[in-house]
Amino acid sequence: MSLGTVVIAVPKETAPNEKRVASVPEVVQKLVKSGLEVRVEHDAGLNAFYPDDLFATAGAKIVSGRENLLRGAGIVLCVQPPTAPEVDQFDEGSVVIGFMNPTSNLPAIARMRDRKITAFSLELVPRITRAQSMDALSSQATAGGYVAAILGAENCPKFLPMLTTAAGTIRPATVLILGAGVAGLMAIATAKRLGAIVEAYDVRRAAGEQVRSLGAKFLELEINAEGQGGYARELTAEEKEKEQLMVSAAVAKADIVITTAAIPGRRAPVLITKETVAKMRPGAVIIDMAAETGGNCELTQSGKTIHLHGVTIIGPQNLPARIPFHSSQMYAKNLQAFLTLLIDKEGSLIREFSDEILAASLLVHAGEVRYGPTRDLLAGGKQ
Ligand code: NAD
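# nicotinamide-adenine-dinucleotide complex -> structure
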């Protein structure tokens, strides 16, 4: 290692059931080729099926022990937000990139501020064309939407495709997707490939064209709730009532319902009430992808599966971690693209974050929390 070589550290994720890893051998090889040193913690990729020897062949140094990994590391790549005790292990002044949960992981963010760590939050990467290759929210939502459709099929007591057999004709199952953003569109495409009849609904009218282009039916209301930055806004009371009526009729006819509706920074909207669940077909399944932010179904319990009136309601957590090989690969490529903004042609770390993407995703720097909503929350809680 020459003097001034930037050292990138890839720790083993420690959150329960987190199987992803922030980099993969294919990406490590490119980083090493561009003059960076990459250290990977022993067994960091084991649960995603990237064993140490593949990382070593790609040019990474395999390091045992967190202290050895982080000492002298200029950049740390992570998937899950670091916890406060983990932050204490980072070198002062180092740069951490990953999901940060900017409005809920407050104790760790305060520690990063106090220890003069620089943190970039992938949740804050703007959704502009130039940032598409770095959009980890989208890559992981794609993985999540796929897994949700598979989970729905696995828990459904029916075939999804139409079958004509000597034992009779089987009618195709109906899959309803509520919320046709990145995850919802992937769930639609996956359910279509499995042969189901697919219907979808979103409050953004622009989603209709995308839904139809996947061969699914778009359920339309006289509402267009497109808000800032292409995201949805909250509905008015009158709009919510109209939505309830239409959604409840569609849910009652579906065999599998996959819900993905979210409004940034808010609790997930309730689209399926307990009364609607009572009207569902026996054997019907709800996969509530919004479980971790409150749930789109009133009865969802995050991390649990419940059975009621013959209906199975699943509130999964961290769906992308269920296909860790590919979700890690996509995430690693997002980080590789992000690093191109942070490292100059000579292989040095850039200290001036005026680039639009860096400026928007900079959460903590030089002892200051740079993202307003997090700063306000910290000021409110006096952390
Ligand atoms: P998200 O996870 O915030 O929400 C998921 C979906 O839920 C959205 O489509 C939203 O409209 C929908 N929703 C919210 N309230 C609803 C309700 N009451 N009923 C039904 N549906 C409801 O969204 P996302 O998947 O992250 O994407 C949101 C937008 O961002 C989309 O327009 C997407 O095309 C756009 N996007 C742009 C880029 C880019 O340009 N680089 C990248 C990714 C996403």
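# post-check
Residues 127, 132, 135, 137-138, 141, 178-184, 201-204, 207, 230-232, 235, 260-264, 269, 271 surround nicotinamide-adenine-dinucleotide (CB under 6 Å).
The chain is about 35% helix and 15% strand.
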